[in-house]
Amino acid sequence: MKEGVEKSLAKLTPMMQQYMEIKERYKDCILFFRLGDFYEMFFSDAELASRELEITLTGRDCGLEERAPMCGVPYHAAHTYISRLIAKGYKVAICDQLEDPATAKGIVKRDVSRVITPGTVIDPAMLEEKKNNYLMAVYCQQIYFGIAVVDVSTGEFYATQITWGSSMRKLIDEISKYKPSEIIANEALTTKPEYKSYFREYLKIEPSIIDGELFSLKNSHDRLVEVFNENPFKNLDLAQCASGALISYLESTQKADLKHIEKVKIYKIEQYMMLDSASRRSLEITETMRDSKKKGSLLWVLDKTSTSMGGRKLRQWIEQPLLDVDEINLRLDAVAELKESFMVRNELMELLRGVYDIERLTSKLVFGTVNARDLLAIKSSLSKLPYIKELIRDLKADYNRQLYDRLDLMEDIYALIDASINEDAPLSVKEGGIIKEGYDELVDEYRRASTEGKVWISELEAQERERTGIKSLKIRYNDNFGYYIEVTKANIGSVPDDYVRKQTLVNSERYTMDKLKDIESKILGAETKVVQREYELFCNVRDTVSQHVKRLKTTADCLSVLDALCSFADVADRNQYVRPVVNDEGIIEIRNGRHPVVEKMLEDAQFVPNDTWLDNDENRISIITGPNMAGKSTYMRQVALITLMAQAGCFVPAEYARIGLVDRIFTRIGASDDLASGQSTFMVEMTEVANILENATPKSLLILDEIGRGTSTYDGLSIAWAVIEYINDKAKLGCRTLFATHYHELTELEEKLHGIKNYCVSVRKKGNEIIFLRKLMRGGADKSYGVEVAGLAGIPANVIERAKMILEELDEADINQSSKKRKQKPVDGQLDLFTSSTLTKAEREVIEELKKIDPSLLTPLDALNKLYSLQQKLK
Ligand code: ADP
Fold first, then answer.
1. Which atom of ligand 1 is nearest to the CA of 628?
2. pLDDT above 90 for 199
């Protein structure tokens, strides 16, 4: 078999053999094979690319009986085609000619110069400006994980590891934070039972499995020393192995120096506020749940940054709220000062608008892909620095002072680019026109030769007309023949003896002569020489600038921080936000708080502000009732968002806010995504609740909306009741919680348990209509107004009337039932659910089973599983 393949390979043309040999090494990529002015693709790559890019599929003789399927794209337009393939998740290997085809002997040497994958794109044209593009390596070892993340376009590199708790979920939460566009992993990851549901169905990203050897301790140690001159990991083997594999992968795809990646930032997941993936989605931090758009998210309100770098920084801040009071206050102080300094802020924002993406330009510098225009963009950005520095000179806040001290004006680099690069340099670096006059003597001299040469030519033309008496004689130029004298057929008789014929046309003859050859060699020599010299000088300037990558990156960082701070300050000023008091005292007090996004989206209505008080004592849990559409979930989300904003160092939409640090926010709002597919909505909901109960701490904030809705009323109510009891119990959790519910029975808990308070979102009934007042008040809602809300939603009036009648009948029946029940002895501290005399056999069994349970021996998960199985018995 193998022999057969080799035989048929041997039949291939030499160029096709070269292609096959290279393709063999890049099997998982679409190979762009440079042939003249085109990148060609062959065989299955060609079929795939022609389909995906809608380009014509042709064929090429390859030595075999059938022609090889082929399609191609012009090399100068390749990047648009590449970006389309990358956006669809493919990897592209660029195979270039390594020698000049004109001078090459035999077949031109070719090899892959770069592999572009979704996670390694550096071309700004292919990237979203205000969003990092991450590549992640996951190292799975039994039940634990190492994680390393890099943004090649900016040089940021992070690493961490997960060695506790239900780690697969933590891994998913971390992946949801970064939203990497590409993941590489070792094989072990795919053997996890949850792999398919989590990656394929939930995250919708398929990790590429790479050689496990690349994750070894030895490889990672060597790679780290190679790039960072040291191994920064101490006793963090999993994170180290993931980082090593990531560097190996970068080296094999980028084939360039990685010096713009200066350091690995090693962090602990619990160092930042933890937000699980469901909470990130439901709080709509960076994108909306419904259509994944920025508009309508928290980021949309807060991001008024002027630069792409600042946009990315601000996004990172709200994706990773802080847990250190001092660090938070450092940011808040700086924002406060910029908020007050209106003029300074305005001018800074204006200046920053003229700053390009220095971070990504620096990466291009390192990869050697900058052109003269990129250098000009760096120069123009640097030209703003003295003004920016001057503006922040008198700021007093520590963070602002640090920025002032760190901001390097880079005058030397500015001066170098300013002196050398022409303001209107072209895109191409190999066609001249780049170097400024006066920068290099040789360039000036060649240029003189070529301009003066043109004068010499016109002088010669005049002389020859004079000498020969041919008035129509012209000296012309074309690429094939160079300079020539053109004489029309009618005048050939007057041509002197020293003209040498070069070419005969229908109506004219073309000649040359010694003097013309002389001038020509001077001019043409100068023109090629100047282009060559300019390219050399450009490369020198580029290399000199790229030796200052570290300084450029520091400057970029200062500017991005300043930009993000200005944006926070500006938004605070425009939207009447206040500075939150952040401490570690456990109280969340918000006066007249607003939802930052909903208040912006309301068109003709005014947003109604509301108060909040949660603590770890008397006010641990607020049970919130009220009809649908009253504003319960808006209110709960607003509390979560205000907390998150405060800990990100941002001012908040309220009149006053005091935020006792929150270590994790968990939300369970509405119909959640089907995490573990194939399960009922109820099962999904219960899994999520189990996760919350398992991972929340006394310092967490829980937002729970309609827990237990997915099952029958009594089941749901029992579960909600038990969950509240568990959360409220200080020995178990005792954390701050907002709990919205339709079960009015739950309001009984306020009297039974310390730590619970009832609230309702008020509505007023006016005739047949209900008016939403949106005001949160103490006490439980008296009625659910479900029928009225259904009316508002457009259910026909006769259906609504009938519903009202049924409701009245049910209410009456309920009253009779309750009075009967009251005569029986109530079970103390329990819901009055189980005292009916008409129990079925299954119900009695369930009660017996319940009696046998010792709750103190159950974990929350066991409890929920038990509840679920009890419920099944009743179905
Ligand atoms: P619920 O969770 O009680 O069903 P929502 O929180 O979804 O209700 O609110 C329904 C709608 O009411 C929101 O989309 C918003 O437009 C409006 N709304 C909610 N809270 C307020 C408020 N405090 N001020 C003004 N409008 C509000």
1. 4
2. no
* Cα dist from 415 to 38, 273, 539, 553, whole Å: 39, 44, 16, 18
SS3 content of the chain, % helix, strand, coil (to 5): 50, 20, 35
664, 733 Cβ separation under 8 angstroms: no
Q: How far is the CA of 642 from the centre of ligand 1 (A)?
A: 16
Cβ atoms of 117 and 207 within 8 Å: the answer is no
Ligand 1 center to 773 CA (angstroms): 10
262 within 8 A of 150, measured Cβ to Cβ: no
Bridge partners of 740, per DSSP, are 624, 705
Atom 5 of ligand 1: nearest residue by CA position: 631
List, in order, residues 6 or more apart from 280 with CB less than 8 Å away: 176, 177, 286, 319
Q: How far is the CA of 633 from the centre of ligand 1 (A)?
A: 7
Query: 726-761 pLDDT, tens per residue?
Result: 999 999 999 999 999 988 889 999 999 999 999 999
Which ligand 1 atom is at minimum distance from the Cα of 594?
23
Alpha carbon 717 to its chain's center: 40
| Residue with CA closest to ligand 1 atom 25 | 607
**Residues 663/274, Cβ–Cβ less than 8 Å:** yes
Token code pair at residue 275 = 């937000």
Atom index in ligand 1 nearest the CA of residue 626 equals: 3
In Å, the largest CA–CA distance within the chain is 135
Give the containing element (helix H, strand E) for 737. strand 736-740
CA 688 from chain centre, in angstroms, equals 25
- Write the DSSP assignment of 318-333 as a string of letters: HHS-B--HHHHHHHHH
CA-to-CA distance for 646 and 623, rounded, in angstroms? 24
Phi/psi at 574 (nearest 5 deg)? -70, -35
283 alpha carbon – ligand 1 mean position (Å): 14
Pocket of ligand 1 (CB under 6 A): 598, 602, 605, 607-608, 626, 628-634, 774
> How far is the C-alpha of 525 from the C-alpha of 531, rounded, in Å?
10
598 CA to middle of ligand 1, Å? Answer: 8
pLDDT digits (tens, 9 = 90+) for 589-643: 999 999 999 999 998 889 999 999 999 999 999 999 988 888 999 999 999 999 9
The β-bridge partners of 625 are: 760
Q: Which amino acid is at 218?
A: K
Token pair for 781: 């809602």
Pairing of strands 144-151, 135-141: antiparallel
Cα 639 to ligand 1 centre (Å):
14
H-type alpha helices, 492-647: 514-546, 549-574, 598-601, 632-647
Please give the distance, rounded to the nearest whole angstrom, from the Cα atom of residue 589 to the centre of ligand 1.
21
Under a CB-based contact definition with an 8 Å cutoff, are residues 266 and 146 in contact? no
Question: 607 CA distance to ligand 1 centroid (A)?
Answer: 9
Between the CA of 279 and the centroid of ligand 1 the distance, in Å, is 19
Decide if pLDDT at 370 tops 80: yes
54: left (phi over 0), alpha (psi -120 to 50) or beta: left
The phi, psi pair for 62, rounded to 5°, reads: -130, 5
**Beta-carbon neighbour count of residue 552 at 10 Å?**
24
Residue 367's pLDDT band (cuts 50, 70, 90): confident
- Positive or negative torsion for Cα 865, 869, 870, 872: positive
598, 623, 776: residue to mutate for ligand 1 pocket, most atoms within 8 A of CB: 598
Q: Whose CA is nearest to atom 10 of ligand 1?
A: 629
8 Å CB contact between 788 and 770 = yes
pTM: 0.82
Q: Which residues touch 499 (CB under 8 Å, ≥6 apart)?
A: 485, 511, 512, 513
Which has the closest alpha carbon to 415: 366, 441, 378?
A: 378
Q: Which of 610, 623, 629 to mutate to test the pocket of ligand 1 (most atoms within 8 A of CB)?
A: 629
Q: Which two tokens stand for residue 279?
A: 């909470």
